[in-house]
Amino acid sequence: MFRKSFKVKIILPTVAVLVALVVVINVFLALRFLNMGEELIDEKFIANINSLNLFLENSGASTKAAAVSMSFNPDVVNAVRDGDTYELLQILTPMQDLYKIQYYTVTDAEGTVLARTHEPSHFGDSAVGQQSIINALDGKVASYFETGYIVKVAACSCAPIYDADGALIGVVSAGVRFDTPETVQELKELLNSEVTVFFGDTRIATTIIRDGEYMIGTQLDPYISETVIKNKQEFMGDTDILGEKYRVYYKPLLDAQGEVFAAFFSGIPEEELIQETNKAIRDGIILGLGGLVISTALLFFIISTISKPITILTGDMHHIADGDLKIDIKVKGEDEVAHLSRSLHRITNTLRKLLEDINIMISEQEKGNTDYCLDTDAFHGDYKILVNHILELANFGMRDQLTGIPNRRSFDNRLALEWNRAIREKKSICIFIIDVDKFKNYNDTYGHQQGDLALQTVANVLAQSIKRAMDFAARWGGEEFIVLLPDTDSSGALRVAEQIRAQIESAAIPCTDEKAAKVTASIGVAIQAPTPSSTIDSFILKADEALYRAKETGRNRIVFGEDSADGAV
After folding, report:
1. Cβ atoms within 10 A of the Cβ of 513, count?
2. Which residues is 268 bridged to in the sheet?
């Protein structure tokens, strides 16, 4: 009787749901298919318009960010001041991908081009005819759609460059080109439609192909040209393009003077739209049949499993008792057994998540990522207390308890990770070993409490000096600290090391040394492009020997190890 009542409780509502599902699906398909085709066309067309306009907005924002950022770059400022075309190309070319732009142009204060990343051999001419450059030479950041001496159609932003004295010494311009085959192909993939860029009323870049050739050089329809070019209005509708029907959108591009000099086209062939409509109808029918099949399968599944809920739950509990937390508890329903199964399921989910989070935390900490921790808000009650205790133990094992920055164990893990990555990617790696000068005398004079405060101050300087996510600073031991800078050359290393040395010297740490007004630090630097035959120990030894020379030659200085750089600073 118990089994029979269970089956009756489940089978009757399931049959009712199955019947209702079939009826609803058939009614829905009958009504929906009447207007689905036109809705799909309109939705895709509106999405294309929004995506194209968003692309243009993002292009302008990218160029502005790229131009303004480079106008404050000290290396760019120095290169413009020196008129160094080669250095400008070396600095700016790698930055194009970072800001998602296609080119940089740099001029001096008279508008003479110093460098073009898209035409490296073309410089020395005047660019004062471009309104964005004119505005930037007047000290304003300007963003326009415009044409230039080399680029036909682009989003362009210009920013003035000032030297340390506040004098305007040049202009940096960043642009996203719209007149290239790569741009229209990228937009075609983004919009899933054909794309054309017009310069005036002439196609200069397009994805439309006729007889195996791109339709470059053909003219815009006179009626559409009147609307878009002359009247400066968008055009939307159905039209014939080179003998094929399209649902189209034309977007005029206005230059700095408010005149239309170019236009964008996005179009979907009517045949493609009809195919998509048919596909939607076909998918709807498949969905209805799939729902019917799933409902039928669900009915048989319930009938075959509901008769043995206690046995199933008992078996699941045996697995959990034996330590198998991956068990999938299958008992469903609203009776007491089902409630018990859900409670057990919650317990296993909580334990699984706790184990997974602990494994991830251990893996991250083995990589030197000491900032990763468990999400305590995901747990409650005694579970949360347990998580907090685990975090305390993890923090104790991976961080220096005095300074709060990672300890030597964390550093060893991170260095091994970055060392292997540098070998794979054939890149260099840099470390500093930093020693607080005459720290024993300092401790003897001020006491250990003040000495601890001095070490905490140095740790804060290191934490604030490293900027990149992959950089790493740790306490090496005693009064020694260590910094890891992956993919860093000698000039970059010197810049960071000098910043650290200067900030420690300027920190408010009292000192009784008659020859020094402040506590200072010596820094040993080692840079190496590791190979499978090189060792981490020898690499660290180079930095340690460089530190020794820094201490021996007067302290408060930076010394590079063998094969890293020359001399001391």
Report:
1. 15
2. 247
Q: Among 434, 447, 444, which Cα is nearest to 522's?
A: 434
104 contacts 116 by C-beta, under 8 angstroms: yes
What's the rounded Cα separation, in Å, for the pair 258 and 263? 13
Distance of CA 293 to the CA centre of its chain: 43
Q: Are the CB atoms for 383 and 335 separated by under 8 Å?
A: no
Per-residue burial over 121-152, b if 16 or more Cβ lie within 10 Å, else e, is eebeeebeebbbbbbbbeeeebbbbbbbebbb
Place of tokens 């799939």: 290
Are 359 and 326 in contact by the 8 Å Cβ rule? The answer is: no
Alpha-helical (H) ranges within 33-73 are 36-71
Instruction: Residue 431: name the closest of 547, 342, 289, 330 by CA.
Output: 547
CA 13, 14, 19, 21 dihedral sign is: positive
- What does the DSSP 8-state code read for residue 84? -
Q: Which of 144-158, 264-278, 357-371 has the highest mean pLDDT?
A: 144-158
pTM over 0.70: no
SS3 labels along 250-319? EEEEECCCCCEEEEEEEEEEHHHHHHHHHHHHHHHHHHHHHHHHHHHHHHHHHHHHCCCHHHHHHHHHHH
The conformation of residue 220, written as its DSSP 8-state character, comes to P
Burial 75-105 (b: 16+ CB within 10 A, else e): ebbebbeeebbebbbebbeebbeebebbbbb
Q: What is the distance between the alpha carbons of residues 279 and 102, in angstroms, rounded to a whole number?
A: 38
Q: Between the CA of residue 87 and those of 1, 246, 491, what are the distances in Å?
A: 88, 49, 14
A 10 A CB-CB count for 394 gives 18
CA distance 549 to 132: 53
Give the CA radius of gyration of the chain.
34
Rounded alpha-carbon distances, angstroms, from residue 387 to 137, 352, 354, 373, 409: 59, 13, 8, 10, 22
Structural contact between residues 513 and 439, judged by C-beta atoms closer than 8 angstroms: no
Average pLDDT, the chain: 82
Confidence at residue 306, expressed as pLDDT on a 0 to 100 scale:
53
Q: How far is CA 203 from the centre of its chain?
A: 35
> 165: which DSSP letter?
T
- In contact, 25 and 31? CB cutoff 8 Å: no
Q: What whole-number distance in Å separates Cα of residue 262 and Cα of residue 272?
A: 27
- Please tell me whether residue 479 adopts helix, strand or coil conformation: coil
Give tens-digit pLDDT for 504-522.
988 867 655 554 447 899 9
Residue with tokens 């998602």: 100
What is the C-alpha to C-alpha distance for residues 500 and 458, in angstroms, rounded to an integer?
Answer: 9
* Three-state SS sequence of 16-28: HHHHHHHHHHHHH
Residue 312: predicted pLDDT: 67
> What pLDDT is recorded for position 68?
94
DSSP assignment of 342-378 equals HHHHHHHHHHHHHHHHHHHHHHHHHTT-TT----GGG
